[in-house]
Write a structure and sequence with these properties.
mainly beta, six-stranded mixed beta sheet, six-stranded antiparallel beta sheet, 2 helices, disordered N terminus
């Protein structure tokens, strides 16, 4: 067989077979590390790009930040309340150098949404007032800055975006917007489309249907969850394909009763499961407005959305949590992090920070899936966020439950810090079984339904049955939801030795854009549930 020295591609069958990830039996815990006491802004929104830099922004109307713009660069939009502000409200964080570069915003990105286009640009939409109909783009280059233009048909504040198999974004909902639209616009898609489901899930005076949880199903339709129920939606034909049962208990899980949700790892081209965790009881928003902060929900609902007659399976978390973030780890586990145990999202409405993350292990039997992790020192309340980095660490930042930057005399001061949570798979005792990639050419382009031969080394003894390969789409994270987050377990073939302590594993890439929309993904090799450092691949 002909081989490219590091990574070879062979056109192969289109079957994506299921695989199993073996997770380590070692005790959980994890470690925390402060990266920067202050980056000058609060990390309300975050997105990792394929140059290992993170785009971060908060809100232009918070008042002057602690991050100064370069000389001569100031907000100059006369219609924006931030006009004349020469401080930054967006920054680019370089993971490799632990440095921050200020970026210029001219319109308000508060409570906006976004996703990464197939070419690697972050395309971000909406916001408040001057920003509500804006489309902004940010590229992965050394000196890139925000490009802003009009581009939306409706105001989008608290909306959700998802990348589609054809490369467009769909933008769904927002405050008082019971509709959706596409971007970029084409003659055939330059319209607003009503989505009655969003008005049906709107609780008067509380809403509870903002930032809906949206996932691309394996059949190409969209799973849309708002408030306490969900539909499967064919956006091509503009029809509801399936209405799912209400989540047991009927309590709201969407903003501002903010729970969170993930599409669990995809191991098959025909099956998909969604996990929804946390939130606040019915009426909690009204009670928080009146100064009463009720206990958050401590339940998760798991639903196999591809079943003919799906039913929710409920599980109980070790802690109640609202405003938590759910992040897929390279080994297929789910990290639940940040948030509070009482109240709701909104200015000053959260109480009792939950400092201990939880890891949910979806392959374990019910009753053994949750593991409580090491406590953080910094509360991460409303307007905090978290994302996965290429080395398997979790970047955590934000928390500003105030209308402005407020550092003193309040329960939960504005947080400008960035820190890292290191899951236990990064512990030194696993160094001998941790895969080390013999890295392919960065930005390696791969196709659909192809075979990849991926070389890696192991310091200790290889356990062939525990080798797995995953692909992760880095999400746009804000307000307790990681948009476009996706993890695929690649169908695995033989593992063969190539030289001392070096091996090659053969895997098959996803067969279509329904499984993995075109774009940049992080590819991880795992051994005994321990991931190596990810490598960027570009599937198209």
């Amino acid at each position: 067989m002909n081989r490219v020295p590091i990574l070879f591609l062979l056109i192969s069958h289109l079957l994506l077979l299921s695989s199993t990830i073996i997770t380590p039996a070692a005790a959980a815990g994890g470690r925390w590390k402060l990266l920067q006491r202050s980056i000058g802004i609060s990390a309300m929104h975050m997105q990792l790009l394929h140059n290992d830099r993170v785009v971060i922004f908060d809100r232009t109307e918070f008042g002057p930040s602690k991050l100064i713009l370069p000389a001569g660069k100031c907000a100059n939009n006369p219609n924006d309340l931030a006009a004349g502000d020469c401080t930054a409200h967006s920054a680019e964080y370089d993971v490799n150098t632990n440095t921050v570069r200020p970026l210029v915003l001219q319109t308000n990105v508060w409570c906006s949404s976004g996703s990464v286009f197939p070419d690697g640009r972050l395309v971000q939409t909406g916001g408040y007032f001057t920003g509500e109909r804006k489309v902004r783009s940010f590229g992965a280059c050394d000196n890139c800055d925000w490009q802003e233009a009009d581009g939306l048909l409706a105001p989008r504040w608290y909306a959700t975006n998802h990348i589609l198999p054809d490369g467009r974004q769909i933008i769904i909902g927002g405050r008082q917007q019971f509709n959706y639209e596409f971007y970029p616009k084409t003659p055939s898609s330059n319209n607003l489309h009503n989505l009655p489901f969003l008005s049906q899930t709107n609780d008067p005076g509380q809403e509870n249907n903002l930032y809906p949880f949206v996932f691309l199903n394996v059949d190409g339709n969209l799973f849309i969850f708002a408030n306490n129920r969900a539909i499967l939606f064919d956006y091509v034909k503009d029809v509801v394909v399936k209405t799912y049962p209400q989540i047991p208990g009927g309590d709201p899980r969407s903003y501002p009763s903010s729970g969170s949700a993930v599409l669990l790892p995809l191991k098959s081209p025909v099956e998909a499961e969604v996990l929804v965790c946390g939130g606040a009881p019915k009426g909690a928003v009204t009670q928080a407005v009146n100064g009463k902060f009720v206990k958050a929900l401590n339940t998760c609902g798991r639903l196999k959305i591809t079943d003919a007659s799906p039913q929710w399976v409920m599980e109980t978390m070790p802690q109640a949590r609202v405003m938590g973030d759910m992040i897929l780890l390279p080994n297929g586990n789910v990290l639940i992090i940040n948030g509070a145990s009482a109240g709701t999202a909104g200015w000053e409405y959260g109480r009792d920070p939950v400092l201990s993350p939880i890891i949910y292990q979806p392959e374990n039997r019910i009753g053994t899936r949750f593991e409580v992790q090491t406590q953080a020192a910094i509360p991460r309340m409303y307007h905090s966020s978290a994302i996965l980095l290429r080395d398997g660490r979790i970047l955590v930042g934000g928390s500003n439950p105030h209308a402005f930057y407020n550092f003193t005399g309040v329960l939960y001061p504005t947080e400008l810090s960035l820190e890292i949570f290191q899951p236990s798979y990064l512990n030194p005792e696993f160094s001998n079984i941790r895969p080390k990639n013999i890295v392919p050419i960065p930005q390696n382009k791969i196709g659909y339904g192809q075979q990849l031969g991926i070389r890696f080394s192991i310091g200790g003894k290889l356990n062939e049955n525990t080798v797995a390969v995953t692909m992760v789409a880095p999400p746009f994270t804000t307000h307790s939801f990681a948009m476009n987050q996706r993890l695929l377990v690649l169908a695995r073939g033989k593992v063969t030795p190539t030289e001392k302590s070096t091996y090659q594993v053969q895997v098959t890439t996803p067969r279509s854009g329904n499984l993995a929309p075109a774009g940049y993904y992080l590819l991880f090799v795992l051994h005994q549930g321990i991931p190596g450092t990810g490598i960027w691949v570009h599937i198209q």
